Amino acid sequence: MRSLREFDDLRLSPHTGWTRQHWAALADHLLLSARPHASPSHARITFPGPPGGYGTDVDGLEGFARTFLAAGFRVAGEGGRDPLGLMDWYARGLAAGTDPRSPERWVRLDEHGQAKVEAASIALVLHLTRPWLWDRLPPLVQEQVVDYLTPAIGSDYPPINWVWFQIVVEQFLASVGGPYARGDIERGLALTDGFARQDGWYADGAERAYDHYAGWALQFYPLLWAEMAAGDPAADSRLPGYRDRLERYLHDAVHLVGADGSPLVQGRSLIYRFAAATPFWVGARAGAGSPGLLRRAASGIARHFVDRGAPDEDGILTLGWHGAWPAMAQSYSGPGSPYWAAKGLYGLSLPADHPVWTAVEEPLPVERDDFHLLARAPGWLVSGTRADGIVRVVNHGTDHSRPGSHLTDSPLYARLGYSTATSPLLAGPHAADPFDQSVAVLDEDGRPSHRTGFETLLLDRLPSGTLAGASRWQAHWVTSGAGGPDHGYGRSGAVRLGPWIDLVSAVRGAWEVRLIRLSPGSAPEGPDGAAPLDAGRLRVGGWPLPSATATVAATYSTAVACSRVVAGAGFDRSGTTPVADGSPLAPWTLVPWCATGGPARTGTWYTASVHLAGQAPAEPPAVSWDGPALARVTWPDGTLDTLAVPAAPGEPG
């Protein structure tokens, strides 16, 4: 697309330069670039590339419904002004897609589950643009649309964010005099109430599932539904709670955006890219949060991707992060899937005179000062450093599973760290076998153990401001069968158990100190009669650093940043391993590590210091012990912290 720099306004937007004009130009470019890929009646938009896992019929529906989001936001925010003729263009597609006799008809909600997702996007845009689209549709087309959406009634939806798709569709049906089931809406609302967690966060279902869906789905739909159902006592009574949760969540969310605009590279569906901006626009529409800060976060995210090749030179959002990188997709992803990024354009539904567009941008937390944030719901120790603009998360609470499970570790959920400057290894052997950001026991064949199913022991802020977290898990190895859908999280299989691992993290600035202890495990034989593993070599993996080459510099630095693991007590091996094409950020990824040369001893605390910053570190933290239960950490800035370590399994606390 043409450079958007010509629109920059550094008075209004001193951090990004972006204004509403940039957002409008981006939306228009995406919409016009999609038209050449539409079917004759516009009902299906099928973007280039191999068919998705659900087939071309679903691909075409996704392409329509998800670009329809952008069109709807664009026209709603202009009060119906529509110089591109978006409503007429999409009205043709609605007529053909819902016509059961049309050769371009859409796959129905009772034919494929994915249609339930796309139906919600269609319904919410018809709500937002009602005077300019729905009210002008011929009665026959209105009847067809109602008939197309009706199978949502009484249907089964997975008990995750999908429940909102049923609620939104049935609420729209109710608003236009169509059939709906009040019981479906009430049951769905009760279920989603159970997703609420501490400090305004939502989990995506009953598991420890925290990712970008917490913002672009679970914060988005409650406020939208309350708006659709305004005047209904059920909506009006819930609205204050939804808004309060959103406002508290936004406090944490703005801390998770890097100074360069990058969101965390964590969680599934990352191909939706600037959909990560959605909750900031939801906050603006709901009057929650500071408008200048919300726009700074959202514009930073969008500019991050636009400046790095998304959309591509043909105006297409490909399967990838910056550019195309198909390995990033899950099995449910097709060529139209990335256009859920259109949710990130939700701000365009707000008129040009809204405070979110007229307020002067405010700096992000990471641009104001170094910070340490404890996000209790996802179990994250969050550290931001102003000098390099990097935000880091040390993870003691998220694995997309439950305590006590024995699944493989998903690189998107169960790694020990995520940041705005690095990506976990998502392709190659280290995606399935943890290496980066891990603490693992190696079996006889060198296979690393997994940690999914860990127990969170500690999440705390020390008097000095340093963050502390701890978790415990039984090391396990999983032999999973080939095939099956890839939804971005861990897999089950035959399990072999090993020793217990206790991990204590202390986080200050760019450093994390890891204290690690193994305790004997007791378990039955593993698959094929393999005996439980009492101990093995212990390995600690650090931050996966993007690199243009496989060369490992003496300073552990690249043009992006510096990543280093400093071996402490008990470790006698260390190095940095280059990995080719393992992440979407660069051709190579450099992973520093340290390890024991032989089997680790149980009952002994091992120490390592893990670093990620924009430049090579000064002296690492120093660790000493005051008896067996108190560790003292002296940080490079002179701060001294004392950590009480947990008792071993079976010992009195």
Task: Describe, in plain words, how this protein is organized in 3D.
It contains 15 helices and 18 strands. It has 653 residues and is α+β, with helices and mostly antiparallel strands. The chain has a six-stranded antiparallel beta sheet, with no helix packed on it.
Task: Lay out the secondary structure.
Layout: H1 20-34, H2 56-77, H3 86-97, H4 114-128, H5 139-149, H6 163-175, H7 182-193, H8 213-216, H9 220-228, H10 233-253, H11 278-286, H12 291-306, H13 355-358, H14 365-368, E1 371-375, E2 380-385, E3 390-395, E4 417-419, H15 429-432, E5 438-442, E6 455-461, E7 467-479, E8 494-508, E9 511-519, E10 537-541, E11 545-547, E12 562-567, E13 573-583, E14 586-595, E15 605-613, E16 622-625, E17 630-634, E18 640-644
Antiparallel strand pairs: 1-2, 2-3, 3-4, 5-10, 6-7, 7-8, 8-9, 9-15, 10-14, 11-14, 12-15, 13-14, 16-17, 17-18
Oligomer: single chain
Rg measurement, Å: 25 Å
Strand order of the largest sheet: 6-7-8-9-15-12
Main beta sheet strand tally, sense and closure:
6 strands, antiparallel
Count the E strands.
18
SS-based class: alpha+beta
Q: Estimate percent helicity.
A: 25-40%
Give the end-to-end Cα distance, rounded to a whole number of Å. Answer: 61 Å
Q: State the shape.
A: globular
